[in-house]
Amino acid sequence: FDGMDLSDMYGFIEVLVRSPEGLNRPFLPYRSQSSNLLLFPTGEFKGVYFSEELKFAKKLGYKILPIRGYLFDRKPSPFRKFVNEVSDRRVKAKKVGDEGMSYCYKLIMNSLYGRFGINPECTNTEICTPERHAYLQSQADNSMNVIKLVRSDRIEIKRSNKKKKVVYVVSYVRNRKNLEEWIPPTISAVQLSAAITACSRIHMYPFISRDDCYYTDTDSVILGNPLPADHVSSTELGKWKLEHEITEGYFLAPKTYSFLTKDGKEITKQKGKAKNYVCYKWFANQYRDPSLVTKIKHEAEFDRNWKKLNIIKKVYDLKLQLNPESKRDVVYEQGKWIGTKPKHVFDYEVNDRYHLKLDVSVLEEDIEKLKNQKDPTLVIPLQKALDNIKAKLDDEIKGKGIKQELMPTEDEDPWLLRVSEEEMNERLLLIDVYEPWWLPEQESSCLIPTESKAQLLELPTIDQK
Fold it and tell me: How much is the mean pLDDT over the chain?
């Protein structure tokens, strides 16, 4: 990407980003290496993003340093006609009161997006003979690690008047990293769903970032004030549907809320086993004292026993309590919970060189802006800082060695291309020392153009106060 501007890129880019200061509702997500949680933090971190959301983030004040990635050709959306036709049929089904067909059309539209985003690394489960089990075990243990065993249970089946039969229940995934030739998955196209999700975030952010946004979840927001009429429609794709008018409510955590509507309904959402034991009053009490814990007995009608391959009824001791907010930091004032703020992260695992290059990029932008000022002395301290960082960057490159930096292992970099050693050595000779990666030209295409992103969204609900 040496010399290439972000505005000219279209595809999936690995970048180092630095968020603007004072951002209460950060836009770019980050996968925590320690907890595996998807956060929306402030700070400085590395991630892989769709180019269109990076361009949007840059407008919000994010500083972005492209590192490497895959670029695609921009093509017209293949989904526009399909989605519009299915949506029209759903509207007609609603008009005639056919709720069954309306629901089917909704599933078809949602499944289109979900199907493309399915994990290509599917888990295969077999009930097999000892001979087949031995073969699968050999495939997992050999030097190529063709498969990875997830579970392997030995089961004895008792049969009347016959000897016991031994079978194995084996679950495994194919190790695609160690295949001699990379084969594109036939059951999914993750790049399409990833692009749709990124465009959805762009579409949602102006509403999520409002000061009167109390809660958001996937395709809905709860706002303190009404939206303009031209943003609301129960039938038009890409617009909001007014689902409820709320008088009061408690929104304590993701998928953990309860509110009262203008027409007197109580609507409660609670994930997990506790969903049948909480109500509006419980949420009110938890808000007043987040440390409250209530112990109850929970009876599971269908609990799975994997060892015996049985479905059993089981009684659990269940604690009803509010888990500490894990995706944002809780804010207290004089001991009272008043809100949350985004977590701040600094990805120390990112190569120091990338942090330095981002500093260079930011300083160069600032210097360019100040050149138009009447006072040239404003540029001098920034130019000195820039020269110092460039010198440090030169030392970093000379000290660590170029080839080592350019050749991550497959474990460190799942995007490592499979090319011959001779070809890779030839490419290494062509690389500028300031550019840490080279990707051969790709003739693939991403089929999600920016101008059609609204056609790909169905935002069916909006909750408003």
Answer: 77
Domain locations along the chain:
124-178, 255-326
What does the block give as tokens for 32?
Answer: 């925590």
Dist. CA 453–CA 80, nearest whole Å: 9
Helices and strands in the chain, H and E counts: 10, 21
Instruction: Name the DSSP letter for residue 180.
Output: S
User: One-letter amino acid identity for 194?
Assistant: A
Is 204 within 8 Å of 221 (Cβ atoms)?
A: yes
Q: How distant, in Å, are the alpha carbons of 59, 237, 318, 453 from that of 91?
A: 36, 11, 43, 21
Instruction: Return d(Cα 448, Cα 246) in angstroms, integer.
Output: 36
**Confidence at 249, pLDDT banded by 50, 70, 90:** very high
In contact, 15 and 61? CB cutoff 8 Å? no
Question: Following DSSP, what letter does each residue of 255-323 receive, concatenated?
Answer: TEEEEEETTS-EEEEE-SGGGGT--HHHHHHHHH-TT-EEEEEEEEEEEEETTTTEEEEEEEEEEEEPP
Give the separation between CA 208 and CA 114, rounded to whole angstroms: 23
Over residues 377-419, the pLDDT tens digits come to 666 666 776 677 677 667 665 655 433 333 344 444 433 333 3
Q: What is the pLDDT of residues 22-73, one digit of tens each?
A: 899 999 999 987 788 899 999 988 899 999 999 999 999 999 988 889 999 9
Q: Which helix (H) or strand (E) holds 402?
A: helix 402-406
**Residue of 189, 235, 244, 188 whose CA lies nearest to 214:** 244
